[in-house]
Write a structure and sequence with these properties.
Number of helices: 8
Number of domains: 2
Number of strands: 11
Family: Belongs to the choline/ethanolamine kinase family.
GO molecular function: choline kinase activity; ethanolamine kinase activity
Region (Disordered): 1-22
Strand order of the largest sheet: 1-2-3-4-6-5
Structural class: alpha+beta
Radius of gyration: 21 Å
Protein name: Choline kinase N-terminal domain-containing protein
CATH class of the largest domain: Alpha Beta
CATH topology of the largest domain: Phosphorylase Kinase, domain 1
GO biological process, one term: phosphatidylethanolamine biosynthetic process
Shape: globular
Length: 298
């Protein structure tokens, strides 16, 4: 997920890129090339890289260039100040079972060109450099805040109405079946029984039949609208949806319902994979979200 200044904490002390940062050498070279063209970076070598927590499928780092120390009037040595910041995203391994990385990269580039999400600043073989968003990542509790929920609903409708290139075929059902097949191959029988894998195929088919009817609206769906993929500027209340690994065209009702399920999730708990459905939004909350969605201009 994209870095932010308040909710994602550095895992360790920052390390200079030239002195052994864990980002790939290709990423370091790209950072130096980018910095050479920026007027607000006085020394391309004054780079610090800080690993950030929170990402699930990638490794993410904050890269920042320090400004030269200014001598204060007291004559004491002044610490260097942080200047420009960017996000370095190193793609995780083994994610091809979940999504197509090349499709995700094309989606990100298209979103960037149209002013949605962070801007793409450059690419290296196993990752990219993105604009650093100065905003706060939402928490699980934020999804239940009526004001924030209304903003999410409005932003989600904008997302659904995006004109994206390529075929507009619905991919979600084949994707779910592929995930189910992989899960059955990997899980021992006791875990397969615990997670009711044998019954999920019927549930997928039931959803597909219901959401494939002519009156269902098809739009560009995020398909992973959990709190960690939503950022908000506290001053302007502008909201940014990030991380498009699972984004594709599909029934918008599914995307909205999936967001409701995410209200039952807490990925910072001891059992992040277990959803607490006592936190699932009640009928009034669902109606309020849908009303905000439909009343927005999109």
């Amino acid at each position: 997920m994209v870095a932010n200044e308040t909710s994602q904490k550095a895992e360790a002390a920052s390390t200079a890129a030239a002195g052994g940062s864990s980002i790939p050498e290709e990423a370091q070279r790209l950072l130096h090339e980018l910095a050479a063209g920026w007027d607000d970076v006085e020394d391309c070598r004054a780079l610090e890289v800080v690993p950030l927590k929170g990402a699930m499928t990638n490794e993410v780092y904050q890269a920042r260039w320090l400004l030269p120390a200014r001598a204060p009037s007291t004559g004491e040595a002044a610490p260097a100040e942080a200047g420009r910041k960017v996000l370095v995203r190193v793609y995780g391994e083994g994610v091809e079972v979940f999504f197509d990385r090349e499709v995700e990269v094309r989606t990100f580039e298209c979103m960037s060109r149209h002013g949605h999400g962070p801007r793409l600043l450059g690419r290296f073989p196993n990752g990219r450099v993105e604009e650093f968003i100065h905003a706060r990542t939402l928490s699980a509790a934020d999804l239940r805040d009526p004001e924030i929920s209304a903003i999410i609903a409005s932003k989600l409708r904008q997302f659904h109405n995006l004109e994206m290139p390529g075929p507009k075929s619905v991919l979600i059902w084949d994707r779910l079946r592929n995930w189910l097949k992989t899960a059955k191959n990997l899980c021992p029988s006791n875990e397969a029984k615990e997670f009711c894998l044998d019954s999920i195929e019927k549930e997928i088919t039931a959803l597909e039949n219901e959401l494939s009817k002519d009156y269902q609206c098809i739009g560009f769906c995020h398909n992973d609208l959990q709190y960690g993929n939503i950022m908000i500027d506290e001053e302007t209340k502008l909201l940014t949806i990030i991380d498009y690994e699972y984004a594709s065209f599909g029934p918008v009702a599914y995307d909205i319902a999936n967001h409701f399920c995410e209200m039952a999730a807490d990925y910072h708990s001891e059992r992040p994979h277990i959803l607490n459905y006592t936190k699932y939004p009640d009928t009034d909350e669902q109606k309020q979200f849908v009303q905000s969605y439909l009343s927005s201009s999109g």
